[in-house]
Amino acid sequence: MNAINRNEQRALARAVLEIDVNNHPGVMSHVIGLFSRRTYNVEGILCLPVGDGSCSRIWLLVNEDARLPQMMKQAEKLEDVIAIRRHHADHAVFSELEDFFRP
Amino acid sequence: MTETLTGAQIAIRLLERQGVRTLAGIPGGAILPIYDALGQSSIIHHVLARHEQGAGFMAQGMARATGQAAVCMASSGPGATNLLTAIADAKLDSIPVVAITGQVPRAMIGTDAFQEVDTYGLSIPITKHNFLVNSAEELLEVIPRAFEIALSGRPGPVLVDIPKDVQMQPIEIADWPAPGVRQMPPPADALAISEAAAMINAAKRPILYLGGGVVHAGAATVAVDLAEKANLPTVMTLMALGAMPVDHRLSLGMLGMHGARCTNLALDECDLLIAVGARFDDRATGKVAAFCPQAKIIHIDIDAAELDKIKTAHVGIAADVQEALERLLPLVSENARREWNTRVDELKRDFPQHMPDLDQPLSHFGLIRTVAVCLDDEAVIATDVGQHQMWVAQGYPLRRPRQWLTSGGLGTMGFGVPAAIGAALAEPQRTVVCFTGDGSILMNIQELVTAAEENVNVKIVLMDNASLGLVHQQQTLFYGERLFASQFKATPDFVKVAQGFGIAAVDLDTAANPCAALMEAIARPGPCLIHASIDVQQKVFPMVPPGAANRDMIGA
Ligand SMILES: Cc1ncc(C[n+]2csc(CCOP(=O)(O)OP(=O)(O)O)c2C)c(N)n1
Ligand SMILES: [Mg+2]
């Protein structure tokens, strides 16, 4: 993916996306493919099943970019995407994981 | 009463229940159980293509001509990869195609088995949706769903990959699912509709801008009604040609890169652009910042992601365009708009599409017009990709939605012949003409024998300039006349080639009376190749140079 150094990355504004999807192999490729084909870097990915496991929730940490609203509309169109919500970059889901990502 | 059926038999039964009567494909090891079941079907006619890309474009031809979802089939590995171009083409032009591919047995997936490729992964970015089927049971849900997805919302291709063991798995069936049909989206927002109507009523210089979505939605009639009621000059994209007859008093024909000057100049002056089922493609808009610089924009499209994608709309309406236009129509007031229409007529008079040598049947426009004279509006006109395609778009009097089949978004050479065969298979009562080039025809030339085998009523008009003409044109205009890899040094004898494939052929170059020879060839039922040489120096004009604004066209 796009090589940007760590300081540059911190300087960029971020957004967190919360995406509810049907849980089956291939869903992740559909969602992530939307970003990679536009050379839109995904900085962080988390995914776990929800409830009885028929659905999963994908959390994405992405750069704020003028293309983000279009990305969300494209993601919304995917058959296996049930809902998509946008949060601020300071959302706890990624900040609380920082301990696992020390160099 | 229950019956025991294999996955393959279930798949075929579900296709029969969907109303599929003709499909195209090529068998191979991983799809043989399905072919075995297909061979037992007395309802479905299988057309044996000679290349899977041909099968894919035949399905597209059926779908484009009828609006119904059409099916193509291929085996795993190379069969599936050969289909991909036709699927990508269907994605970009929003064509409902259901592609069914065989896959290696589930236990062998991921082992680099013979003829294994990741068809599912490969098709993700070029399909509307895709499935890898895990059990025979699942087919009962997946196949109707594939049709529903292909037909609903913005149409598009759906791929269903079925492992061989799933095809062979027997299960008991008690009930059959309902066939998948088009689901309607929620109605258009009433407030936005009335806002749009108010904007149209207040506009001094509005233009109606129709895209392929108008054809897909069956909204051409109501679009013309709206134009007539409010006297809206109307432009069409390449994909929308035929939605309004080109010789309608309000028609400005095709806009964009190869539109007439009057069309692009009128857009430059408009104060309101009403975009319907159009997506502001770069070939239509030219330099976006300079497209309709004075205009407010109303954008109606079934795909919400198209709204504000390229141009921000003042009123955006995500809805079925037919439903939206039907609701808009009564709110729009009758208005002669004399001043604006007089101005548009002036532009039409001063900057018309220039069509030289119309009276010579062997000139490019003369040939196209002579073909048109031989036919009525019931004919289907397909094209390949290149100069010939743009000349037909500029010069053929298209008057009916679904009359015009062309590869717009992907611009795929090789589209024409198999798409024309597909259209002729789906609508055997029509004459189907395919305008092609000497470069394009070679990309699916093998389907000539399929045309012979099926005895389809397809007339292939080959405009032969012994060149990749559009490349030749670009090199001449924008690369300092450095012609490279655009002229063929060896050229086939196309008449003999066609005859060798088993179809009739005539050469207008050597005919004593080219007009008579052409008319006779078109009138004779069955497939025929009509060859005519075209001067390679001829250009598609006018033209918006790459990166320029539409007002800055070059050429006559
Ligand atoms: C599959 C594919 N390869 C390459 C191109 C690029 N291309 C566009 S037009 C063209 C030339 C087409 O030649 P021909 O069919 O003879 O039509 P002409 O322009 O001469 O009328 C080429 C190579 C394309 N559109 N599709
Ligand atoms: Mg050519």
Describe this structure as you would to a colleague.
The complex is a heterodimer of chains A (103) and B (556). Chain A has helices at 6-11, 27-36, 68-77, 92-95; strands at residues 14-22, 42-50, 55-63, 81-88. Chain A has 103 residues and is of the alpha+beta class. Chain A has a single domain (18-101), classed as Alpha-Beta Plaits. Chain A starts with 5 loop residues before the first helix and ends in an 8-residue tail after the last helix. Chain B is built from 21 helices and 20 strands. In chain B, α6 links the parallel β6 (129-132) and β7 (158-163). Chain B is globular and about 70 Å long. In chain B, α3 runs parallel beside α4 (78-92). Classes of the chains: A alpha+beta (103), B alpha/beta (556). Magnesium ion binds at residues 386, 437-439, 465, 467-469 of chain B.
Overall helicity of chain A: 25-40%
**Strand order across the largest sheet of chain A:** 2-3-1-4
Number of strands of chain B: 20
Low-confidence blocks of residues of chain B: none
Helix/strand class of chain A: alpha+beta
Question: Assembly type of the shown chains?
Answer: heterodimer
Reading off the top of the CATH hierarchy, the class of chain A is best stated as: Alpha Beta
Q: What is the rounded Rg of chain B?
A: 24 Å
Most residues in contact, chain pair and counts: A-B, 14 and 14 residues
CA-based shape of chain B: globular
CATH superfamily of chain A: ACT domain
Radius of gyration of chain A (Å) = 14 Å
Number of domains of chain A: 1
